[in-house]
Amino acid sequence: MNRRECMAGMGAIALLSTARASAHGAPATLAPLLPSWTAWKAAYLQPDGRIVDAFSEGASHSESQGYGLYLSVLFDDAEAFRAIYGWTEGNLALRNDGLLAWRWRPDTVPNVPDMNNASDGDIFYAWALMKGADQFDMPDCRGRAATIVAGIVRACLPPVPAFSGQRLLLPGADGFVRTDGTIYNPSYWMPQLMSELAMFFGAPGLQRAVDDGLARLSELAATGLAPDWMLATPQGWAAPPAGFSANAGYEAMRVPLYLCLSGLSAHPMVARFHDAYVTTGTQGVGTATVFDVQTGAALERSPDMGYAALAGLTACGAAQDAALSIPLFTTDQPYYPATLHLFVLIAQLQRFPQCQPI
User: Fold this and answer.
1) Is pLDDT larger for residue 7 or for residue 164?
2) Of the four listed, 80, 100, 149, 318, which is most buried by Cβ atoms within 10 Å?
3) Is the pLDDT of residue 334 over 50?
C-alpha cells in the first residue's frame, strides 16, 4: 500500500468565506483559482467521477477520490461532488466497516485486489461528506461520514508502542501493527480535517491523534525531516521495515503542506523543510523531491511545477511576512504534483496573500 513507491521519478484550515463568486458559486476567496480547478477536472476527473492517476497505471485511490471530493467542496462544485461520491461509493466502499478500499485498478479482475483501506483517503473523504451534507443538500452524506469516522477510531487508532496513552493515525486497518512494532506515515495526519471531524462527531480519540501527531512532528524536527515511514517499537522509534522508505520523499512532502493548510505554518517542521529546499535549490535541475532525513541532501529531483510550488509554500510559511512567489498552476504534469500544486495555491490565497503566484 506504499502508493508513492510506484511514482519513483516522479489545528486549522481557514474556514471558507461565505461570500460567493457570483458567476460560479465558488467562495470569493478562491475565485482566482476557478480556471485552475476547471483545468484540474478536465485533466484528471472522468465524467463518471473516477479520478485517474495515469502515472500509476491509470489507477484510482481512496486518496485521489478523497482529494477530489475535498476540492469539490472548497470550490462549491455540486456536479463534481455528486459524480466523485457516486463513483467512490460504487467502487471503493466495499469493506464491512464502512472504510474505503484503497485502490481501484483498471487492469485487474477484480478491480480491487486489496481490500485494505488508506486512512488519509478516508479522512479527506469523510470531511468532504460532512461539509457536503449541508452544502449540497445531501443529508445522507452526514451519516456516511459518521460511519467512516467510527471505523477509523475503531480500526486505526491503537496505542503507540512505548508511548503510554498516545494515539497516532495508522496508515490502514490491516498489516501495520506487527510483532516488531507499528508502522506509521506522518503524511497521513491532516490536522485540521481530523480536528473538525473529531469535534463534529464527538471523537476525542481522533483529536488525541492530532495532538500526539503534532508533538511527534516537533520531536522529529529537532533532528531532521519527517520521514515517509517510521516504526514505533516497544523500545522507541526506529527505521521502518524493508520496503518502506525512510527518506523524506513523495509521502513526507505533504507534511509541511498539511501544516500550512491547517494554519500551523509556525510549526518547526515547516522550517525544516524550507531549509532543505533552500539548501538543495541550486544543486541540480528541478526541485528536490526526496531528501535524506538527517542531512537534508537531495536524493532525487523533478521538473514538475507542483513540487516547486511546495518549496515556495514552505518559504511563505517560514518567512511569514516576506513577499515570495510560487509557480502558476499547470496540468502539464502528472496527477499527484498537479493536485499538490492546487492545494498549495489554496493555502496561498487563504494563508499567505503576500506570496504571489508567478
Assistant:
1) 164
2) 100
3) yes
Q: Is there a contact between 58 and 107 (Cβ–Cβ < 8 Å)?
A: yes
> What does the CA dihedral 333, 100, 254, 69 come to, rounded to 10 degrees?
60
Angle of helix 268-280 relative to helix 254-261, nearest 10 degrees, comes to: 130
At residue 147, the 3 state secondary structure works out as helix
Omega before 110 within 30 of 0, i.e. cis: yes
d(CA 323, CA 348): 12
Q: For 68-125, how does the pLDDT look when each residue is reduced to its tens digit (9 = 90+)?
A: 999 999 999 999 999 999 999 999 999 999 999 999 999 999 999 999 999 999 999 9
The Cα-based distances of 102 to 54, 177, 194, 266 in angstroms read 16, 18, 19, 32
- Going by their DSSP bridges, the two strands 236-238 and 230-233 should be labelled as antiparallel
User: What is the phi/psi pair of residue 233, to 5°?
Assistant: -115, 165
List helix spans (H) across 75-223.
78-91, 119-135, 140-155, 191-201, 204-221
Grid look-up 510506484 returns 6
Q: Read out DSSP for 283-331? A: SSSSEEEEE-TTT--EEEEE--HHHHHHHHHHHHHHHSSS--EEPPP-S
What is the per-residue pLDDT for 325? 87
pLDDT tens, 145-177?
A: 999 999 999 999 999 999 888 999 999 999 999
Residue that is written with C-alpha cell 481522533 in the block: 206
**pLDDT tens digits, one per residue of 258-316:** 999 999 999 999 999 999 999 999 788 899 999 999 999 999 999 999 999 999 999 99
pLDDT at residue 255, rounded to an integer? 98
Supply 107's cell numbers. 487492469
C-alpha cell belonging to residue 231: 516504526
Question: Which long-range contacts does 276-284 make (Cβ < 8 Å, 24+ apart)?
Answer: 276/225, 276/248, 277/310, 277/311, 277/314, 277/315, 278/315, 281/311
Give the integer Cα–Cα distance in Å for 261 and 314.
Answer: 11
Contact 297, 281 (CB under 8 A): no
Cβ contact 200:130 at 8 Å: yes
**Three-state secondary structure call for residue 236:** strand
